[in-house]
Amino acid sequence: MMIQDYFNSDPLAPYYNLNGLTDVVLTCDIDWAPEYAIADVLELVESYGYKISFFATHKSELLLEQSESFEVGIHPDFTRQKSNYSFEDKIVRLLEIYPDSLGTRSHRNFFGQNISDMAKAAGLKYEASVFLWNESFCKTHIDYNSMVRFSYMWEDGIHLDTNTPREVSTINLNTPGMKILNIHPILIYLNAETDDQRREVTKRYSDLTKAPYNELKQFVNKGYGIKSFYTEILDYLKSQNVQTHLLKDLAGIKLSEIKLQQNVA
Ligand SMILES: [Zn+2]
Fold first, then answer.
1. Per the domain annotation, does 92 fall within a domain?
2. What tens digit of pLDDT does each residue of 105-150 get?
3. What is d(CA 62, CA 65) in angstroms, rounded to the nearest whole number?
4. Where residue 253 sits, what CATH number does that domain have?
5. Structural domain harbouring 184
6. Measured between alpha carbons, how far is residue 211 from residues 30, 76, 186 in Å?
7. Helix (H/G/I), strand (E/B), else coil: 162
C-alpha cells in the first residue's frame, strides 16, 4: 500500500503533504499585543499572498475587519487562578467581540473536556490547542463532540526557548502531515533573539495592548531575530509554491466526513 491509501476516507488528505510539501496553515495567537504589532504580522503575511488564522485574547479593531486573508478564532486565558470570570464567561465574552469565530485555541494550551463541552455549547466548530512540537506527522480528527481537533507543530517562542538553530531545515516541513505554524505578534514585532528578551520588554506593561508605539519601537532588534527567521520560513514556503489555508476552511472540509459517513450508514 502507498501512504495515500491509508487516508482515502479523510477529506483533509490533500492537506497532509503526502507527496511532498504543498500545504501549510499559518496561525497567530495575539496574546494582548498592541494593534501595530498585529498589523505588522498581517502585513508581512499578506505580502506573500498568504492567509493566517488569528486567535484573539482581546478586542482588536484591525481584526474586526472582514478579509479574505484572515479569520479570527478566540484565545481564552484559563490559566489565571484569580479571575472574576468563569471559564464559560471567558468564552462568551470573546465571542461577543468576534461573533463569527468558528474556532478556539486556549492560551498556554490549557484545554480539557470541560472546556471542550463549553466550546461546543457556544457553537464553535474546531479547536487547535494541542501543541506537538516538531512532530513529523500531525493529522486532524473529529472528537466525541463532533468538533474538529487540530494539532500545531511549530511555534516561534518554543523554537527560541529550545535553542533550536534558526534554520528552516530544523522544522519537520518535509515529512507528511498537517503543518500548522504558530507565531505571536509581540515576539515578531520585537524581532527578539530570545523569548526572555520579549519577557524583559513586556513585563514593563500591566496592559500590553496599550504599550505606546514610540516606546516599544525602541526595543525592536535590528539584528537577526525571530522575525528574520520567520521571514526565511515564508520565503522557503513561497519558493516551494506552498499554499496556505484558514483553519475554519479546513474544519469545514473535515466535517464533511461526518456527512459522508451518515450517507453510507
Ligand atoms: Zn497565548
1. yes
2. 999 999 999 999 999 999 999 999 999 999 999 999 999 999 999 9
3. 6
4. 3.20.20.370
5. 15-264
6. 14, 21, 11
7. coil
Q: Is the pLDDT of residue 166 over 90?
A: yes
For residue 105, the CA-to-ligand 1 centroid distance in Å is 8
- Confirm whether 9 is domain-assigned: no
Q: Three-state DSSP class for 79?
A: coil
Answer whether 170's CB lies under 8 Å from 232's CB: no
How remote is the CA of residue 264 from the centroid of ligand 1, in Å? 40
CA 238–ligand 1 middle distance (angstroms)? 27
C-alpha 5 – ligand 1 centre gap (Å): 37
Place of cell 512532530: 135
Going from the Cα of 31 to the center of ligand 1, the distance in angstroms, rounded, reads: 5
Give the pLDDT confidence of 228-254 residue by residue, as tens digits. Answer: 999 999 999 999 999 999 999 999 999
Ligand 1 geometric centre to CA of 235 (Å): 25
Find the 195 Cα to ligand 1 centroid distance in Å: 13
CA of 55 to the centre of ligand 1 (A): 8
What is the C-alpha separation between 230 and 170, in angstroms, rounded? Answer: 13
- Cα-to-centroid distance, 18 and ligand 1 (Å): 30
Q: Cell digits for 127? A: 479547536
